[in-house]
Specification:
This protein is mainly α. It has a domain at about 1-45. The chain has helices at about 10-20, 25-45, 55-65. The longest helix is centred in the middle third of the chain and has 23 residues, at about 25-45. The N and C termini lie far apart (about 55 Å).
């Protein structure tokens, strides 16, 4: 998707330095992907303690044997 943005030059330069990318497009793409990855991790961590997992892997493993 092509999008036109007006961004502060200092911010873009800082993102380029931080990410190590040589072009503004690559740096912004890198930063957005890193942000999305972190946001997804936070959503998963927010589920901690809310999901009940039954520890029955030994029983399930026994079902995997061929007759």
């Amino acid at each position: 998707m092509r999008t036109t943005l007006t961004l502060d030059d200092d911010v873009v330069e800082d993102v380029m330095k931080t990410t190590g990318e040589k072009s503004p497009v690559a740096a912004i793409r890198y930063a957005l992907n890193a942000y999305l990855q972190q946001a997804r991790k936070q959503k998963l961590l927010a589920l901690r303690g809310q999901v009940q997992v039954e520890d029955n892997w030994r029983q399930l493993r026994g079902l995997d044997t061929l007759p």
